[in-house]
Design a protein that fits this description.
With 492 residues, the protein is an alpha/beta fold. The protein has helices at residues 14-25, 64-73, 106-116, 121-143, 150-153, 156-163, 174-181, 185-192, 212-219, 230-242, 283-290, 298-301, 334-342, 387-406, 422-429, 444-448, 474-491; strands spanning 6-10, 29-33, 45-48, 51-54, 83-85, 88-93, 99-103, 222-224, 245-247, 254-258, 261-267, 270-273, 276-279, 308-316, 326-329, 353-357, 371-379, 414-420, 461-463. Strands 7-6-15-16-17-14-18 form a 7-stranded mixed sheet. The chain has a 5-stranded parallel sheet with strand order 9-2-1-13-19, with helices on one face. Bound molecules: flavin-adenine dinucleotide. Flavin-adenine dinucleotide (FAD) binds at residues 10-16, 33-36, 41-43, 56-59, 251-252, 280-281, 290, 309, 311, 376, 425, 429-431, 436-437, 465-466, 472-474, 477.
Length: 492
């Protein structure tokens, strides 16, 4: 591949930028288009009255996939980006006053869990060991390669993974696996919550999702210096230093094709001719709006969406030493909450609250003695909801619950605020119905068989990002950028 291979990338989300860096490193000439004025898509930032907030992702795992990008570009990561490992993964609060601190050190985690819950160390050790085994056996098949190429199935590690299938808990739900592993319902709830890491429900997502705790507990959770926004900022700078062209504030109106070949992208009335187009826009929006001339995969497009969120950004004029970087305040009836999020049930007004406070790590993120609260509650990605109304209802529910559990009148402490709702997520990032992670992984097929990273009939058309294989969340999006770059370099 060389400069004469022209690649256009539609979308500067994390997957689009990862693909850009890898393709440029392989010698291609790369242009990235984004309708927004910043690189990072859902990784965005806002500031008000001396408070800074990351608006999208807040949990950073698997930093090795970021490191790989610097290595493949031949650049020194420390010139662009740095991060630290967190000693406390998360602090959990229950309505019955139970408080559990999940330490990153496994021995400390187990000791604390045995102190707080009705559990023996062996049950936790076995769970984490199985979690690691599930990840190791499946990552090379399900995460690191296209599932839509025969060559993937001819590899030795794929065969090893396939042989391990019976141990992967594909036939039971995550909740069933957790109930079998732990008798204390509070511990079951903690391990059920990992389903939300890809916007699914623990009552239907397959038990193999119990590999997610391995990523947090055995590999670790991290904090990027400067906040989550420093990830796309560093990758943007790296890509520009390598010669990738960015055209921000530029909406692509159509991906152009002729016969069975991609020919370029159209921006307004001008067509930019290109051999390869990598679509980082949500697959649903891509087929509906960017590829009207191409038959859409209607079945894949009807797949259930992952959950969305209402996110409050509050400048809080008090410091709470009892809180950590990541905090969870659980709903008392978890099943009812997921009936509402994933099964079309009635609105549930005791949500599980995720509270992230980056000023715990970066003191510049809030004025002295204050904290920047990012509060996320999961809500359904559902059409026709009155989000303004539900934001008011949920704001009250969140304030009541936090005031009760923290024994403080929270409403009086909020000195500035902003809010993000599913309709805003959709309008800002083209994510259909504001889903955070593309489609949900609420059954075995949906968990693994997502839209491929290339178009089977149109030569030169590729897809990356949270709505396609291998899925949503920063680590998987980075892997989708890697798979696309491998596909292109192997066929160039
Ligand atoms: C509130 C929230 C919290 C989250 N929390 C976490 C977390 O803690 N950890 C985690 O790992 N993940 C988290 N996620 C999920 C994670 O943000 C996403 O999975 C990931 O960032 C998606 O990246 P992407 O590459 O698919 O692109 P996106 O971020 O979806 O960006 C796509 C880009 O394409 C652009 N685009 C679309 N159409 C066009 C067009 N026609 N022309 C030009 N540009 C176009 C959009 O403007 C956008 O910038 C969260 C998401 C949200 C919203």
């Amino acid at each position: 591949m060389n400069e004469t291979t022209q690649c256009s990338i539609v979308g500067a989300g994390i997957a689009g930028v990862a693909a850009a860096i890898r393709l440029r490193a392989a010698g291609a000439s790369v242009t990235v288009f984004d309708q927004n004025n910043h690189v990072g898509g859902k990784l965005a930032e806002c500031s008000m009255q001396g408070y800074r907030f990351d608006m999208g992702p807040s949990l950073f795992t698997m930093p090795q996939f970021i490191e790989e990008l610097f290595a493949c570009a031949g650049a020194k990561m420390e010139d662009y980006f740095s991060y630290q490992k967190e000693e406390i993964i998360c602090k959990y609060f229950f309505e019955d006053s139970t408080v559990f601190t999940a330490y990153s050190d496994k021995t400390k985690y187990i000791a604390e869990a045995c102190r707080v819950f009705d559990v023996e160390p062996e049950a936790l050790i076995t769970y984490f060991d199985k979690s690691a085994m599930k990840y190791d056996r499946t990552r090379s098949i399900f995460l690191e390669r296209s599932l839509h190429r025969w060559s993937t199935y001819l590899r030795r590690d794929t065969l090893k993974g396939l042989m391990a299938m019976p141990k992967l808990d594909l036939l039971q739900s995550l909740h069933q696996i957790n109930r079998r592993a732990f008798r204390d319902p509070r511990l079951v709830q903690i391990f059920d919550r990992y389903a939300t890491y890809n916007g699914s429900t623990p009552y239907r997502t397959p038990g193999i999702m119990s590999l997610i705790p391995h990523l947090e507990q055995n590999i670790g959770t991290y904090y990027p210096h400067g906040g989550m926004i420093s990830i796309p900022r560093a990758l943007h700078r790296l890509a520009e230093d390598m010669g990738v062209q960015f055209r921000l504030n530029t909406k692509v109106d159509q991906i152009m094709t002729e016969g069975n070949k991609v020919t370029g992208v159209r921006v307004g009335s001008s067509v930019i001719a290109t051999d390869r187009v990598i679509c980082n826009a949500d697959m649903f929006s891509a087929y509906r709006y960017l590829l009207p001339q191409v038959k859409a995969p209607e079945k894949a497009m009807q797949q259930e969406r992952s959950s969305s969120g209402i996110i409050f950004y509050w400048g809080v004029k008090k410091a709470f030493p009892s809180l950590q970087l990541h905090n969870i305040f659980f709903a008392s009836d978890y099943r009812k909450e997921f009936d509402w999020i994933s099964e079309g049930g009635e609105w549930h007004q005791d949500p599980t609250i995720y509270l992230n406070i980056t000023s715990k790590c970066d003191t510049h993120d809030a004025p002295e003695g204050c904290e920047n609260w990012f509060i996320l509650i999961n809500v359904p990605a559902r059409a026709g909801e009155d989000w303004k109304h539900w934001t008011e209802v949920m704001r009250k529910a969140v304030i009541d619950k936090l005031s009760r559990l923290l024994k403080e009148d929270i409403a009086n402490l909020i000195e500035c605020e902003d809010v993000l709702t599913p309709d805003l997520i959709e309008s800002r990032t083209s994510s259909h119905l504001g889903a955070l992670y593309g489609s949900a992984s609420n059954d075995r097929m949906a968990a693994f068989v997502r839209h491929p990273n290339f178009h089977a009939a149109i030569h030169g058309l590729y897809f990356c990002g949270g709505s396609v294989h291998p899925g949503g969340g920063i680590p998987l999006c980075l892997l989708s950028g890697k798979i696309v770059a491998q596909e292109i370099t192997q066929t160039a």
